[in-house]
Amino acid sequence: GGGAFNVIPDSVIIGGTFRAFSKESFMQLKQRIEEVIIGQATVQRCNATVEFSSKDKPFFPATINDKELHKHFQEVAREVLGASNVKNMLPLMGSEDFSVYQEVIPGYFYFLGMKGELDKKPASVHSP
């Protein structure tokens, strides 16, 4: 339909991304996306095909910190920064390829931030 609201197009291309905390969940989600899209198209008497561009944008496994490195990092960070300055975070749905390294060697991914005394919220990790 382009930019018009009252035009029904012959075809539509929809794109997006999806993420999961494990490869198993990722594969289940991938299967479910295909089932839902094809099922909804069928309900509307339409045809749908689902393509995942895994060649251009491969699956990155979840970045999960090594437990021993986590313990070591916590000890060192508390000693250097003070216990009150070390915060644990809930898992994030970020897109990160650090996990590729972790498939070869144990790894530890963390965020390091700072803020001025007047700032209530620190700047984004991708800010200049």
UniProtKB/TrEMBL annotation:
<dbReference type="Pfam" id="PF01546">
    <property type="entry name" value="Peptidase_M20"/>
</dbReference>
<keyword id="KW-0378">Hydrolase</keyword>
<dbReference type="GO" id="GO:0010179">
    <property type="term" value="F:IAA-Ala conjugate hydrolase activity"/>
</dbReference>
<dbReference type="InterPro" id="IPR002933">
    <property type="entry name" value="Peptidase_M20"/>
</dbReference>
<dbReference type="InterPro" id="IPR036264">
    <property type="entry name" value="Bact_exopeptidase_dim_dom"/>
</dbReference>
<dbReference type="GO" id="GO:0009850">
    <property type="term" value="P:auxin metabolic process"/>
</dbReference>
<protein>
    <submittedName>
        <fullName>Putative auxin conjugate hydrolase</fullName>
    </submittedName>
</protein>
<dbReference type="InterPro" id="IPR017439">
    <property type="entry name" value="Amidohydrolase"/>
</dbReference>
<dbReference type="GO" id="GO:0005783">
    <property type="term" value="C:endoplasmic reticulum"/>
</dbReference>
